[in-house]
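Q: Could you fold this chain for me?
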Amino acid sequence: QVQLVESGGGSVQAGGSLTLSCGVYGYMYIEYCMAWFRQAPGKEREGVAVIDANSRSTYADSVKGRFTISKDNAKNTLTLQMNSLKPEDTAMYYCAAVPMTRVGCPPPTSRASFRYWGQGTQVTVSS
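A: Sure. Below is the predicted structure, expressed as structure tokens.
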């Protein structure tokens, strides 16, 4: 069983930066795809970024050039570095994971493909 625990959320002014972390717990004997999703009030949960077992990453168009996903296998930690934050980035951010297959990882648009989820951490960006 895989457990995911997010941290690092908070409030920041537009243009600022935040770093989110996701601690990964449990016996991961196979390679996983890891991802960050977010959900704003009244909106559906949307993918932000995905990283595969070889650290190749994919981003949603709305965050390209501003957000960076990375992972530290030795520390079992997933990170999302968020720069140039905008008010529209305000949302609950979730860490997610699914075993990687031979065809690779699901894209950020494929929310239903991810099996394991954290409880979320709130990010609020004020104008």
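A (continued): The two ends are 40 Å apart (CA to CA).
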